[in-house]
Specification:
single chain, mainly alpha, elongated
Length: about 80
């Protein structure tokens, strides 16, 4: 059995959900159902910001080297 859930969201968030659903070739409703399922299937712990950052795959280096490169880019 299915139930209707009405949630009010800001216009900007609605646009982001619509675009994400279009990219996945899904309806907005199906995209939202999947997002809810995914959110509820994970652990109920606080998010790990360092873990999320490490999954981005951004380049890393020694802090002194990174600061030197940033400084060199400003010149």
């Amino acid at each position: 059995m299915s139930y209707r859930l009405q949630v009010l969201i800001p216009e900007g968030l609605d646009a982001r959900v619509r675009k994400a659903a279009q990219r996945g070739k899904l309806t907005k409703g199906e995209w939202v159902r999947r997002a809810i399922e995914e959110a509820l299937s994970g652990p109920v712990t606080a998010p790990d910001p360092l873990g999320r950052l490490s999954r981005v795959g951004a380049p890393t280096a020694d802090i002194e080297q990174m600061l030197a490169e940033i400084d060199a880019g400003r010149r």
